[in-house]
Amino acid sequence: MQNHTEIVNKHPRLWVAMLPILFLVTALSLNVLFLGSDALGGASQLILIISSIFCFAVSYLESKTTWGETEKTIIKHIGDSTPAILILFMIGALAGAWMLSGIVPTMIYYGLKLINPTTFLLTACLISSIVSLASGSSWSTVATIGVAMMGVGKALGYADGWIAGAIISGAYFGDKISPLSETTNLAANATHTPLFKHIRFMMITTVPNYLITLTIFTISGFFIQTQGTVSIDEFTSSLQSSYVISPWLLLIPLGTFVMIAKKMPTLIILLISALVAALVAALVQTNATASIADIQGSGIQRSFMAAFNALFGETNVETGNEALNSLVATRGMGGMLLTVWLILSAMTFGGAMEAGGMLQTISRHLVKLMKSTFSTVGVTSLSCLFLNVMTADQYISILLPGKMYSYIYKKKGYDSALLSRTLEDSATVTSVLIPWNSCGMTQATVLNVATVTYLPYCFFNYLSPLMTLFIAAIGYKIKKVKHHS
Fold first, then answer.
1. Contact present, 142 and 443 (Cβ < 8 Å)
2. Using CB atoms within 10 A of its CB, is residue 346 exposed (0-12), middle (13-18) or buried (19+)?
3. Exposed, middle or buried: residue 400 (CB in 10 Å: 0-12, 13-18, 19+)?
4. pLDDT, tens digit, for every residue of 83-136?
5. What is the pTM of this model?
6. How far is CA 308 from the centre of its chain?
7. Helix axes 182-190, 82-100, angle to 10 degrees
8. How far is CA 188 from CA 197, 400, 421, 424, in A?
9. DSSP secondary-structure letter at 340?
10. How far apart are CA 209 and CA 220, in angstroms?
């Protein structure tokens, strides 16, 4: 955060300070209205840049903020985001390596073997959780294994809403606590919270909420009347024919968790795990590497080139099963470029808002509402929900409140992990419940189930903000800390 002494004399009026945010929200709303799920392809990033220029113009007219001051603050904000950007690139590399090495396919294979009609909802939620935790992406989980689970559930006679609710609940649980997740890293970075500290603190609200969700799906399975049978042999056979499936491959994620427990630097953990997985892919998964197009060479040379390519580029393994092809496709480090673009654009807007003293003006008024831990978390949670509804984008709903409230939480003596957790509990998981949000539109389209149909059954998603408010109300593990300036 920029030193507030540099902008202490800039006190724009509240309605003036709100103008850039209103401009941004209006522009993003129109963006989603006209472009739908394509809004993140570049239009949202451009709108953030335009909003930054608008913010500078307002700041100049209101408090004579110079472009030099604005540029200096923007550069600092972007500099602060550098560690998160590097981690995101490594997450892309790890996702590609874990998929090609057979780690994620092995998890999927054994998960599918657990399916039983009575416990289908529980199993669908668990499998989605595991795949999302391993891949770090709720979107790819829903679009791949989620689609497969929809087919299985329908064949067993379950209603669409129940099936989609179980899939989405599990996918967002895994996404929320996975160190590979973009939103998890964004929440940690926006609040300057160490990644694994953020994840550990989230467990306080996430684990009880997840257990409640699993209990609901378990009990429901015994009372919902179903009929029909389904075979998943085709799916598992395709996995076996394309990959070496072995529990020994799970030693790599186990080693990763050991490094996490030892609190090694995040970037180093991700790099080591990605390189080890890439080596295993080259030496073990010869069938998978041989089926990848556009890779020159033959034999061991081709395998190593394919494994190396998985770290930074697109990887498409031909399995003979169209649904499975989509599931195992990865984009490596290059797949993170749109997210990095969004981060840089959001940091630019945040820097412009701070340079003009606008974030501080808004913060001063909001802090009057934040008299207790419960009200502080409550205002933050409502802000995230508001932005999810108005901007229709979960990333912006994390980044803007993260920047806006960081100073308030610090001034009140709260650990930054309280803010980062609230952002995830309120922004990440609720985005899929809003029909016009990019997440809601995408998941409804992919699963072919309307948002309002699956919403009542996404127990994990709508219980998350309630759980974070409950924990704030009882004050569990929430302690004041001393911040060093």
1. yes
2. buried
3. buried
4. 767 877 887 888 788 888 888 788 777 766 777 778 889 999 998 998 888 777
5. 0.67
6. 25
7. 160
8. 9, 13, 8, 9
9. H
10. 17
b/e map 165-176, b = 16+ CB within 10 Å: bbbbbbbbbbbb
Distance CA 470, CA 449 (A): 31
Quote the CA–CA distance of 90 and 265 in Å, as a whole number: 13
- CA nearest to 434, candidates 447, 443, 446, 425: 443
Phi-psi category of residue 11: left, alpha or beta, with phi > 0 → left and psi -120 to 50 → alpha: beta
Supply the DSSP symbol for 212: H
SS3 414: strand
Question: Cα(319)–Cα(322) distance, rounded to whole angstroms?
Answer: 8
What are the φ/ψ torsions at residue 101 (nearest 5 degrees)? -75, -10
The one-character DSSP state at 483 is P
Backbone angles phi, psi at 236, to 5 degrees: -70, -35
- Phi/psi at 414 (nearest 5 deg)? -85, 150
Give the residue ranges of the chain where pLDDT is below 50. Answer: 1-8, 485
Fill in the amino acid letter for 436.
Answer: W
d(CA 376, CA 410): 12
Q: Supply the pLDDT for residue 30.
A: 83
> Rounded to the nearest 10 degrees, how much is the dihedral formed by the CA atoms of 185, 188, 192, 195?
-80
